[in-house]
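Hi V.,

You were right to ask for the full record rather than a summary. Here it is.
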Amino acid sequence: MEEIIRGNINEDWAHFGYVITGDYVFLGYCVGNVGKSVEEQIHGAFDNMEQQLSEAGLTLEDAVKIDVMFRDIWNIPLLEKVIKQRFKKGYPARKTISTDSAHIGGPNGLHVQIDGIAYIGNKK
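Predicted structure:
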């Protein structure tokens, strides 16, 4: 049985930012720039994801699947714009949903959260 590596722990929220097992890194609750524009929050979420992936020796280009949660689903065009800027070697598979459960900062706070899966492959 392979080792499971957990990193970026948040004891208050009872979760890890990432979990590495086998050939995959699972990322949760990637957020950033809370309280700023939605586009800045999307960039902030990808910045957060990129930082966590770097701890595993990976980049955004290694992301194979992302789940994006928006407070307002009509912000998908902003997401697509940012993805085209940030992913130069190919886009990850994606699911985008809306949620009212974002809790940081109330109505003017968190508007986007991204979870993801990255492939380690032969980078081990």
